[in-house]
Amino acid sequence: MSLLREVITPITMSQKFLCLYWLCFYCLGPEIRSVLDERVAHLYYVLDQGFCPEAWLLPSCLHFLIPKLRRRDAAHKEMKQIFYDAITKRRQSGEKGEDMLQTLLDTPYKYVSENKYTGLQSRGATAGC
Asked: How many domains does the chain have?
């Protein structure tokens, strides 16, 4: 079983990296592509591992008891910071893209906070992988 796990884990990570690269190329824009590396792929892997029955069955106040949920929450914070930086960069440059980020930035809603943008971007990216 150990040998199988040693083979499957790198394949899974490679698959996640390819999926993430595709997603960044078509949906997330050049700001996210510029920071795409194995660290970001690993963050997505950790987020994916956090989709488990415990996350839905336990109240959120008890998530700190489960290591993979703690890692998921830390990865989520780090991904939100990456998306926040991308949003800030896009707004400062003034350029318009044809991707999910630009669609979110062009929404007609008045009171959408940066936190909401980063959360939506993160959820959309996770759903794409």
From this structure: 1
